[in-house]
Design a protein that fits this description.
By secondary structure, this protein is α+β, with helices and mostly antiparallel strands. The chain is built from four helices and 13 strands.
């Protein structure tokens, strides 16, 4: 992939489509039922519970590839999923494992996505020096860290923006908000003339 530099302002319609990947969906789960974590550790292979170090039981699943923190209060935290659907699949699998081993889960799990972490590439180079001055909600200290922090409202997310056009997006509660935020940032950068060059594929 090569890059072409232009002297004129680059227009939105000239930009390539961004590449967006959901990296981690973190969700909380409530089953409204107290659990005996010592018993679960004994019954489920691979489960680890060391209350002297951490109050929750750790259970890692290979399929879907996730990790769950299970607390005696009946609350779970699921991490490592690539989608909200994967979270639901992992939680249901754990409940099936518990039921199969005599630990009956009677209620329906309440699943709430708390944070989505995504990476993206805009396939452009960005003038972070100007962006940090012209855009609101930014922090840019290149002598300490090469990325610019940008807080966006509607959708409410936080971006880490690099001059290469690579992004990290955190704080979204819905997957569609990640896409909405990336495309919104792309439009703002283009409209304010903050894109230096566009990468050419090939």
């Amino acid at each position: 992939m090569s890059s072409v530099r232009r002297s004129e302002q680059i227009k939105l319609e000239d930009l390539p489509e961004p590449s967006i990947n959901i990296e981690n969906v973190v969700a909380s789960v409530v089953i409204n039922q107290r659990l005996d974590l010592h018993k679960i550790e004994q019954l489920i292979p691979g489960a680890t519970f060391n209350p002297d170090k951490f109050p929750g039981l750790i259970l890692k699943l290979k399929e879907p590839k996730t990790a769950l923190l299970i607390f005696s209060s009946g609350k779970f935290v699921c991490t490592g999923a690539k989608s909200a659907a994967t979270v639901a699949k992992a939680v249901n699998k754990v409940i099936e494992m518990l039921n199969a081993r005599g630990i009956k889960i009677t209620g329906k799990p309440l699943i709430k996505v708390e944070n989505i972490v995504a990476s993206a590439k805009l396939h452009v180079t960005v003038d972070l020096e100007r962006a940090s001055v012209e855009l609101e909600g930014t922090v840019y200290e290149p002598e300490q860290f090469p990325g610019m922090i940008l807080r966006m409202e509607n959708p409410n997310v936080v971006f880490l923006v690099f001059s290469s056009g690579s992004l990290v997006c955190t704080g979204a509660k819905k997957e569609e908000d990640v896409y909405k935020a990336v495309y919104k940032l792309r439009r703002i950068l283009a409209e304010k003339g903050l894109i230096i060059s566009v990468a050419l594929r090939g």
